[in-house]
Amino acid sequence: MTSVLKDKTILLGVSGGIAVYKSVELLRLLQKAGARVRVIMTENAKWFVGPTTFEALSGQPVCSDLFRDKGSGAISHIQLADQTDAVVIAPATANVIAKMAHGIADDALSTFLLAVTAPVVVCPAMNTHMYENPATRRNLEILKSDGRHIVDPASGELACGTSGAGRLPECEVILDRIAHFLTPKDMTGTNVLVTAGPTREPIDPVRYISNPSTGKMGYAIARAAEYRGAAVTLVTGPTALEDPRGVRVIKVETAREMAEAVFDRMDMAQVIIKSAAVSDYSPAEAAPHKIKKGAERMTLTLEKNMDILFELGRRKSNQVLVGFAAETQSLAENAQAKLAAKNLDMIVGNLVNQPGTGFGADTNRVTFFFRDGTREELAEMDKGLVAHTLLDRVLNLSK
Ligand code: CTP
Fold it and tell me: What pLDDT score does 156 carry?
């Protein structure tokens, strides 16, 4: 999900608010995503968490005074600015936001912010009245028009006892938005329709036929396309995953509902990626009440569901159509047969009975098969990276 942060140098700017404790976790998440982190704190931030914590975790001296810091003496704020790939200010107080908006440079952080040319992500966190104050609103608008990226604060109970907008969002949300802002927008103007997850075919009100799909691959594709600027609709069966931010999510249960949702939207899409694990069959009739146990044996009559992807392939005009093939054997043969039968541009094949791949895993090992008979085998990698590689190929096919 955050491969864009790998090997990047991120400058974490910490200003004085109660949410400073969350910056510590954010630092760790940035590092986990592969970034190198340097920290600049304001003097007020140090009242909440001492610089030692940030120094210990980042392994680098914290800069907070332009003239007196011995620890960072070797590296000036100008050098620091030149070495920075992206800046994240979390929490950003009303004061820091005001200084940024008006080009005031009276401490290490604000001076650095004037000198840095890398993208800047600002995470406002403050009391609701301060956030809603016309001066703060105006300053945030100035930052936006200057091309700064703003992560909107969350709403809820604030430390000061009031309730409303102003909370620093959870660190995962901040990390997700950083990845979004930093990803090059090579899919702007493209409508992408993604399906994900399993379907559930009811047997009676308390039982269903389904499969172990968790939706992780499809959600990773939707998220990656949103990072790249696409307008994304995700049609998903039941999953335990959080809705990807910035994505239109349509929740369905059965294969029939998924088919309806997909066909309603297929004409708007330029790219359709069908990663859902659709039930091939459903009970001919769902019992209206819970089926009681009785006979030693019972037979369930199943009816074949529509093959949504096959139908998409039949109806498609100029969309790029991508399918998935989950196999337990003869991957190439089965995947290529599905590619041809369903009139696809590309199919993503994977063997689901191997470790590190398939249902529920965070990684996947897939092979792309293309219409022209070529194939590309990828190493086992994070599903986020599989998603981005898949979208790279989709962009090539759209040219
Ligand atoms: N698919 C679909 N509708 C169905 C079944 C499958 O749209 N009723 C799509 C899946 O979303 C996937 C592709 O078809 O993109 C292949 O799904 P898979 O389960 O691997 O294959 P099937 O076509 O169902 O064939 P089989 O189960 O015989 O392997």
Answer: 87
